Structures are given as structure tokens and as C-alpha cells.
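User: Hello, can you help with two protein structures?

Assistant: Certainly.
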Amino acid sequence: MMKEVFIAYFDLLGFKEFIENNSESEISERLNHIYIELELALSHKNLSMNVSGKAVKPDVSKSIINCINISDTIIYWTNDLEIESFNYLLITSFLLNNSLNLNEFPVRGCIHKGVVNFINGGMLSKNQTIYASLCLYGKGVVDAHNRAESQEWAGTVLDNSIIETLDKSHGTLNSILDPWCIKYRIPYKKNSPFAHQKKDVDEYALRLFDCKYSDLHNISQIEKDISTVFSKDNKRISAQSVQDKIKNTTKFAHFLSSSCPPKKKLHYKSCEKKCFIFLVLFLLIVTWLVYSINLKKCSMSDIK
């Protein structure tokens, strides 16, 4: 049955080249890493424990949203339009966007509201062949796909359907989005209809990283991380479109850094003064103890 839900749609960038340029064992190993990140995001980094109490894998058993992965596409979606469901989807999307784009594989996406339906069924024949129907379809999926594919970076935009829903239904737009999103001029492909429609419009995008990583040293590292995930797994980055994506993603990282509140700086003069006072007091105490011990020894000698 078709119903309106929240959808987070992600495409892995350079996936075809990744498959073509690596061995089967390398592909399997790298996909396992991506699956772990997918599950860590879905579980909000909660881990299940084995009988000895050791964490063994992401615990997705308490997730309140759905997930499907087909080839280079990852989709999360809710069962309803409740704010709790959207919050869970938003945090999940932030975690995936962050971990993949800085550590594993470049990804671009869109968070959308739309109508979908899901078919899930299958069977194993007597000849050990598989029939499986696993399909999420509907205008909501198509719209999210088109919006994701139109972007020229590794990042995730929130469609206006999300903004309107939160603003009208809940009136808590900023408190919900601000920890995970920021307004930004999204880089679209020049031939995309959104390039003209959104030319002078700032839209909400998922933050690429948390503000605690905003100091200059880490920004320099994040630049390297962005370039690395694009070239990782024998993917070529010489094409102009890839260079544009790297440039646009790096530019966004710098924008994020500049928008973060400044970190508290240590006042070294004040620290030096306190340390000096502490050292003087320490020396005075040591001197007094030595004097007391010597005085006691002298007293004992006089008694003898």
C-alpha cells in the first residue's frame, strides 16, 4: 500500500569503477566495511554484546526506520511521518554521510518526503535457486534519486518538502535541524534543473562533520580525507567532474569550519603565573619538611 513517509536516499560515487578496478576479494572486503558503517549509522553506534560481554556488531534490532541496499544505492525510510521517526532518520543520515565521506566511500544524497511502497518476498526452490522480490518504489524514491543525482559534491541536501513539513506541523525547525544540518548554497550540476531553480537559494545540507573537528589541524586532515575517499580503491580522480566534486566538498568543509563557534583558547600567561605560584609553594613546603626533619634529628642528638 502506498503511503507518505520520510526518505533518505544515498548514491555511492564511483561505484562502477570500484567494481571494475578491484579483485573479488578486495571488493568483498571493502563492501563489508561499507555495510558496517551502514549498520553503525542505523543503530546509532549501539553495539550488541556476546556472552562474554564483548561488543561484536552494530545492534540494529532497536531501529525504528527501514533500510535497503541495492548495488550503489542505500535507502533509509520511515514507517510514518512522526517527528520521532524523522529525528531517527536524520541522525542516521548524518552518521552515514559523515563516516562514508570522510573514511570509506564518497556518497551524495537527499532527504525527502514522498509516497512509496515496499514489496518484500522470496523463496528457495528445490533446485537451490532463489526467487526474491525486494523493491521500494514510488514517486518519493524517484524524486529523491533525481535530487541526489543532480548534486556535484559528496554531500546530502534536505528537500524543501522536509522543511515545509517540519515548519508547518511542528514549528520546531531550528531545534531539530541545527545540530545536524546547516544552510548552504548546494553545488548542482550545470545541466541540472536545480542549478537554475536554486541558483541564489541557501538550502539545508547535512553537516559533514561535528564542530569539535573544526580546528585548523583537523581541517587540513579532513581535506586529505576527502581527496582520499575519492581516489581510494583504485578510483581515478583525473576527470573534471570528479575534481569538481572534490573541490566543492572541500569548500563545504571550510565553510563548516568557519561557521563553528571558536574554541576557548588557553591563556598561557595566566597558566604560567599559576604554575610559578604552585612551584614556589611546593618548594616552600619541601624546604619546611627538610628543616623539620633536620630539627628533629638535632633534638634527638641533644637528648642522647
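That covers the first. Now for the second protein you mentioned:
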Amino acid sequence: MGTFSIVHWIVLLAVVVGYGYPIWLILRRAGFSGWWVVLWFVPLVNLAAIWFFAMARWPGQEVSQPAGT
């Protein structure tokens, strides 16, 4: 106990990349900064972030109105 093996760090990196990259892509397509992905790795904050993104107006979905309407 007390030290982590190289296997631990490889598994940790695989989990971070495996979850972080798809979430980053979704955030970018929705119009948010990819840096919001950091919230997904903070316990309880990730739940608040999911609710925020579910209820927020997504910049990527805004449709511009034609001029004069």
C-alpha cells in the first residue's frame, strides 16, 4: 500500500480518455468549450453539470433569423 503501479496509471489514463474524449466531442458539437469535460471527473459536480447542459440553451442549436423578419 502507498504506491500505485504502472498498471494503475495505464487504467486511469484509459478511463479518462475513454470517457473524456466522447464527452469533449459532444460538448464541442453543442457549441460549448471542450474544457467543460473536466467537470465530468469531479464527483457530484458532474451531476450538476449534466443538469446544466440538459436545461441550458445550446449555442450550437441557435438558428439565425433572416434579415427583416
